[in-house]
Design brief:
about 140 residues, alpha+beta, Heat Shock Protein 90, five-stranded antiparallel sheet, about 30% helix
Length: about 140
């Protein structure tokens, strides 16, 4: 669908994705996370992959990943044009369910997960806290 693009101050990357682009999503997340939080790159890749799959399955078959850096976090935003007008919820799957764990996995691997559902859209933000720089180090 599209490759990563830089999005300005604080914006590290942007990827428009569909089913054929999940590898690109994972590689982009890995590349950015390894630069800023190398010890959590695997967590970031898995969590964002789960969010991207949810966008493909529940959000019209495609979405947009945006990666931003704030003063204290890396923020991975996955947004899609969900037509259901309902806000997804994090919940434990019941019984022998073989799906329904994506948001739960993302929540457990992140420091904070926020979900918004403005009309016709779903936006999930996954925050990974950056480690403070020790005094005297750059």
């Amino acid at each position: 669908m599209g490759g990563p693009t830089i999005t300005g101050e604080g914006g590290l990357s942007r990827v428009e994705f569909g089913p054929e682009d999940l590898r690109l999503v994972r590689e982009t997340v890995r590349r950015v996370a390894e630069q800023h939080l190398p010890e959590r790159a695997g967590d970031a890749m898995l969590a964002v992959h789960e969010l991207a799959v949810n966008s493909i399955i529940h959000g019209g078959g495609h979405g947009v990943l945006r990666i931003d850096r704030t003063a204290d976090s890396l923020v991975f935003t996955v947004e899609d044009s969900d037509g259901t007008s309902s806000k997804p919820r994090v919940s434990e799957p019941t019984g022998q369910a073989t799906s329904g764990r994506g948001l739960l996995i993302a929540q457990r691997l992140s420091d904070r997960l926020t979900i918004e559902a403005p009309p016709g859209r779903t936006r999930v933000r996954l925050h990974l806290t950056l480690q403070p720089v020790a005094a005297g180090h750059v």
